[in-house]
């Protein structure tokens, strides 16, 4: 079973998916299990049989996610591997008021440091890139501030919980 995080209109939900052979899947969302048969019928159009009920979905890439139109409703959906979601969302943790302490959520290797002490950053600016589980994970500022400490350098190995940078 593969674990994913599906974000629909900004709301993340853990999902487990089993199968995939011949377009047949068992999908677990919370305490609900769905039997799904998914078939591509045309470019951007899918026929879905979900627990015996037929649906047609139009699917189009939209920025970082996918726009799904189904039965008159439109959803913006982002699908991310569970481990990558954990790395991305748990990489920054707050400290005292006005301080952002960025920590490594998993062991890895620092591949790039984009800031130095004294740098001014805005929300969303890149800070550090760590390679973990064969994926590069970029950690960004969650709020504007000034970098007061950078505790890592490119090439350095880090453990879960190690402080990467501090921003005030």
Q: What topology does this entry show?
A:
Elements: E1 2-8, E2 11-19, E3 24-29, E4 32-42, E5 45-50, E6 53-62, E7 65-70, E8 73-81, H1 82-89, E9 92-94, E10 100-103, E11 108-113, E12 120-121, E13 126-132, E14 135-140, E15 145-150, E16 157-158, E17 163-167
Antiparallel strand pairs: 1-2, 1-8, 2-3, 3-4, 4-5, 5-6, 6-7, 7-8, 9-10, 10-17, 11-13, 11-16, 12-15, 13-14, 15-17
Q: What would you note in describing this structure?
A:
By secondary structure, this protein is mainly beta. The protein folds into 2 domains: 81 residues, 2-Layer Sandwich (Glycoprotein, Type 4 Pilin), CATH 3.30.700; 76 residues, RNA polymerase II/Efflux pump adaptor protein, barrel-sandwich hybrid domain (OB fold (Dihydrolipoamide Acetyltransferase, E2P), Beta Barrel). Helix content is 5%, strand content 62%. It contains 1 helix and 17 strands. Strands 1-2-3-4-5-6-7-8 form an 8-stranded antiparallel barrel. Strands 9-10-17-15-12 form a 5-stranded antiparallel sheet, with no helix packed on it. It is elongated, with a radius of gyration of 20 Å. About 4% of the residues have low confidence.
């Amino acid at each position: 079973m593969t674990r994913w995080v599906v974000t629909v209109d900004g709301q993340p939900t853990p999902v487990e998916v089993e199968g995939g052979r011949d377009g047949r899947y068992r999908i677990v969302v919370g305490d609900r299990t769905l039997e799904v048969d998914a078939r591509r019928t045309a470019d951007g159009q899918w026929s879905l049989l979900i627990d015996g009920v037929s649906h047609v979905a139009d699917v189009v890439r939209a920025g970082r996610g996918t726009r799904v139109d189904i039965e008159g409703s439109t959803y913006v959906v982002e699908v991310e591997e569970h481990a990558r979601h954990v790395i991305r969302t748990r990489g920054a943790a707050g400290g005292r008021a006005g301080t952002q302490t960025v920590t490594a959520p998993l062991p890895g290797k620092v591949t790039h440091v984009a800031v130095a002490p004294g740098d001014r950053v805005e929300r969303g600016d890149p800070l550090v890139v760590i390679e973990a589980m064969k994926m590069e994970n970029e950690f960004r500022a969650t709020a504007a501030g000034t970098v007061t400490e950078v505790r890592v350098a490119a090439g350095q190995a880090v453990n879960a919980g190690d402080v990467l940078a501090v921003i005030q």
